[in-house]
Amino acid sequence: MSAPLLGQMMDVPLTLSSLIAHAARHHGSAQIVSRRIEGDIHRYTYRECEARSKQLAQALIALGVAPGERVGTLAWNGYRHLEAYFGVTGFGAVCHTINPRLFPEQVAWIVNHADDRYVLFDITFAALVDTLAPQCPNVRGWIALCDESHLPAMRTQVLCYETLLAAQDGNYAWPELDERSASNLCYTSGTTGNPKGALYTHRSAVLHAYAGSLPDALGLSARDAILPVVPMFHVNAWGIPHAAPLTGTKLVLPGKDLDGKSLFELMEAEGVTVSAGVPTVWLGLLAYMRGAGVRFSTLDRTVVGGSACPPAMLRTFEDDYGVQVIHAWGMTEMSPLGTLSRLNWEQSKRPREAQQALLEKQGRVIFGVDMKIVGEGGQELPWDGVTFGDLHVRGPWVIDRYFRQESGSPLVEGWFPTGDVATIDPDGFLHITDRSKDVIKSGGEWISSIDLENIAVAHPAIAEAACIACAHPRWTERPLIVAVKKPGAAVTREELLAFFDGKVAKWWLPDDAVFVDDLPHTATGKLQKLKLREQFRSYVLPTALAVEGCPFDSTQDVAKHD
Ligand code: AMP
């Protein structure tokens, strides 16, 4: 067999330093604006960001950090955190963003598992660092992201970020790295068991940034200003800190204040055109805007993902405020972008209701990701928009194996099983119906908890709702709605249950509804259904009591829906 004819183009590796180098050289004066922990607004350019990232790289090298070693961050969205994104990875070390909202024991476990050499932290996390330091003996130093005048009083001896940078001249050339070397490390939130690490490569992160910038993804350009509300400690803020320098987009970083008023004021002051975040954040923003009677003057579109965007929220953004919602689905193991709800030419000519039905789904994949749904036997299921299956994905920014779990690949025949249950319609639009462990199995059929939650929050008196499975002697499981009312709103259990009539198949109708003051959330803002199920473990549905004989006699035959 003759050797393949190799192409004759430059073999320039895809590295993260090339993103900030490009932005500094070709979008040098584009702005990065940060609301600082210190309280003020900080403003500088990509040119200055690269210069300081180089100083950080020099400082870490001087501290003895070697390529491949991990440097942790415990920080909000801000310019110093951004410098870590490029300064740490630029010389081959790995930027390990840690979620500070996890329990301290979990954070310590993650720091030790990642074997972080240094940890950069925002001064708001000083107390957390004091708790962590004795539990993390392998960390050589904790670096406070501030200047000397803002160093907090702490038990732990810490280094000062600005002092470290000031000792370096920034005269540093980014080294050429192997594009397959590790660049970033993020841990899954680990709602069950220990968190697992996803170790990205320079190549996967750059390809992900390219795809994430495309018109049918975030559609970023040098004319945009983007405010990522999604934290830089959650899957690299969905790749925005990489995509923004790639496209020369103005970057607005909101710091720690993510309440509706703070976000709204920053968006208005900085002319933000695009934003991105989880539904809970947008709940706060919309509630503030409604109360204050204010409107966006520049916001054009917002990406909603991380958990399902309720159609009611989508409607409010679009109908009341003229802001386009892009519903996105992804996960830590996918860097995270997988699908986005953008219509094609033909779909955008369909009647408005048909367009809306599509846009409520999680959308179609971007180039780089392939997906399929499979049945229990692993057979591929049809894209008919009705058949539920386990969602599997693959692509160059999808995980191959977890960090430091070298044995035991998570893949099934080369595909990554996401743990999500979904339908795919003939348009190729994905609709996530559940996490596989949250699906409600009634009479051998599956009921989508997300679909029922979306209906509940469409009720004008409901602020938030979760739908969980409750044990049932006849059907095995039946849906229970656990809802939080809007402040001052009144609705009865019967009224809420009646609200579902005609909106879903009869056998999907929830068996009961209860009201609570608040719902448990994970550190990334998702409903913590495991905890909720534990809370309601002994809850007996009225429909279960109505079953003749012993309500929980497991010897009874389980009924099947017609
Ligand atoms: P994480 O790795 O923390 O980003 O969580 C990923 C998981 O969040 C996915 O596997 C889904 O279960 C869920 N998720 C993310 N985006 C969406 C969405 N738009 N709709 C429904 N679930 C979502």
UniProtKB/TrEMBL annotation:
Alphabetized NCBIfam families for the sequence: PRK06187.1, PRK07008.1
Domain AMP-dependent synthetase/ligase: start-end pairs: 23-403
Organism taxonomic ancestry: Bacteria, Pseudomonadati, Pseudomonadota, Betaproteobacteria, Burkholderiales
One Pfam family recorded for the sequence: AMP-binding
InterPro entries membership: AMP-bd_C, AMP-bd_C_sf, AMP-binding_CS, AMP-dep_synth/lig_dom, ANL_N_sf, ATP-dep_AMP-bd_enzyme
Domain AMP-binding enzyme C-terminal: 452-526
Name used for this protein in its record: Long-chain-fatty-acid--CoA ligase
One annotated GO molecular function: ligase activity, forming carbon-sulfur bonds
Family: Belongs to the ATP-dependent AMP-binding enzyme family.
Annotated keywords: Ligase
Matches recorded under CDD domains: ttLC_FACS_AlkK_like (cd12119)
PANTHER family per record: LONG-CHAIN-FATTY-ACID--COA LIGASE, MEDIUM-CHAIN-FATTY-ACID--COA LIGASE
